Write the structure tokens for this entry.
Amino acid sequence: MNDTLTLSEILALYRDPDNIDHELVEPSDDLFSPERIARQLQDGVKKGQLWIATDEEHDMYVLIAGVDADDPRMAQIIPLSTDLRAETDDSLVIEQGSPLGEPMVAWPHIPAYIPVRVLIRPLKEFKPATVDAILADDPSLADPHDRLRRGVDSPKKDDMFVENREYTIAVLLQWRALCDKLPKLHDDDQSPRHSKEELEAYSNALKTVLHMLPGQRLAVSRGMALSPEQQRLMTEAGFPQSPYESHVSSGYLIEAEQPRWREVADILAAANATADPRESLARKAQFELAARVNGHGISAIRGALHKAADEIEAAANQEAHQVTTPAAH
């Protein structure tokens, strides 16, 4: 398999989603149709889409204004609400034309960058002209079948039960901070070089500390990650970091951040609260499964991630079955 792409080539793919194989989202009146949601997750994050974003503590409707050109793991969004009590004089009210089929409040003047990992459910799209109207804060640009008006300050916008503009800004600031914690992208692998003696010492520790067999030690040398408990034992033995570790390539890091992998990332997060789940998924796909996938470029990356997701979900299901199955007496 040849999945070697430069960072510039990877970014170009996400700037122009037509370069990536995907299924078009068929029109549907059912916002909660599993088939429609699956197709749109496959399609990826695009300008004009309405999503539910969440960090498990806060939920918000967001309009995708665009995917970041330099890092497709981030998107610029406009926040929205279905609570018309939150209306302010710097908002737009979409009286007709929202994908939800009900009025919404949008705040064009408080755009924000958020990591696409907080996007949880796609809710179809606004019409292109209406997207332009929202982004330009100009109701006159909306699609003629839609109806937008400028907002006015609601007398109830500061009620304690209204998730108002100030609440929205506070949540967006938290999500923007998450962007700064994303794993660093690399144009190519620039892994540190280690001496023969360092490599031999680490391999010997895998044998003596973790009692690994030759095949297991070979897998670690090729990038297989240690479990949290194994890492703890190696750290106590004086080996806090593997000399075999390589940077995860940008292609895997970018794709692993996409919303379609959220469920498997949640499984990894529950199993290991200290490791970044998306980076763990990308690492597993690149170093453990990439060699088993045919194809090249983004198709090969997605194929390896699919295999990684299948293995992780199967292991989680098996563990859950063991927990719920009573022991034989």
In short: The radius of gyration is 23 Å.
